[in-house]
Amino acid sequence: MDKNEIISPENLAYKKPALLNETPMHYCPGCSHGVVHKLVAEVIEEMGMENKTVGVCPVGCSVFAYRYIDIDWSEAAHGRAPAVATAIKRVWPDRLVFTYQGDGDLACIGTAESIHALNRGENITIIFINNAIYGMTGGQMAPTTLIGQKTSTCPYGRTPELHGYPLKITEMAALMEGTCYVTRQSVETVAAIRSTKKAIRKAFEASMAGKGSSLVEVVSTCNSGWKLSPVKANEWMKENLFKFYPKGDLKDTTEDK
């Protein structure tokens, strides 16, 4: 076997999904977004839905997601992705429709759209990237920022007396009649990545089967916003975020409907 054969794609342990193109990503080194993009692309490809999927991305770090995954996309105003996804799915019920949103977008600016789309049981999947901060706009406090966590708008740490408490949007979604699958995952290890991919696949399949709304939260890092190296950011996430946002399925009625 010559050198070219050794490094050819078919001989690599990792094969980039075909839907993930060669456009360099704008995400910071160590960011979780790239891994989740890969998983979304893999699942769509494995489901054979390349030509029947519509993603919706609003304002936030993921605003350029359409540049990296070669499917149909629709841009939405800040926080309005679930409303746009609702319209697309109702017009094209045979399409796989999902939103890809950060915590500031979904849990603050778009709280109403998120809550009501989930409660109505729209047959869409919401992928929720929770890094407990506004990553794109300067590291401000988000609804998911932990008590004591420092950001550019709470430099001395979040306090409940001044800023209120962190919002557990996923726990809220699990209580709604319209949701069929609600889970919280992460992508900091190989095992976690495998679990998240399985969750995304289950959510996508549930939406195509007309079983209701699914929410896949991915607890993530923002090492640039947190002012930490990628390694330290993963450690901080495991030591702090996982305690307040524990991983696992919160609701699964996909076999009941």
Question: How would you characterize the overall build of this protein?
Answer:
Keywords: Oxidoreductase. InterPro entries: 2-oxoacid:Fd_oxidoreductase, THDP-binding, TPP_enzyme_TPP-bd. This is 2-oxoglutarate oxidoreductase. It comes from Xylanibacter rarus. This protein is α/β, with parallel strands linked by helices. It has a single domain, classed as Thiamin diphosphate (ThDP)-binding fold, Pyr/PP domains (Rossmann fold, 3-Layer(aba) Sandwich). A seven-stranded mixed sheet has the order 2-1-3-4-6-5-7, with helices on both faces. It is globular, with a radius of gyration of 18 Å.
How is this structure best summarized?
Keywords: Oxidoreductase. With 257 residues, the chain is of the alpha/beta class. It has helices at residues 3-6, 33-46, 81-91, 103-109, 111-120, 160-163, 169-174, 190-208, 223-226, 230-244; strands spanning 53-57, 72-75, 96-102, 125-130, 179-186, 213-219, 248-252.
Oligomeric state? single chain
Characterize the largest beta sheet: strand count, sense, and whether it forms a barrel. Answer: 7 strands, mixed
CATH superfamily: Thiamin diphosphate (ThDP)-binding fold, Pyr/PP domains
Strand content: 15-25%
- What do the pLDDT scores average to? 93
H/E element order: HHEEHEHHEHHEHEHHE
Radius of gyration: 18 Å
- The poorly predicted ranges are none
Organism: Xylanibacter rarus
Protein name: 2-oxoglutarate oxidoreductase
Keywords: Oxidoreductase
Pfam families: TPP_enzyme_C
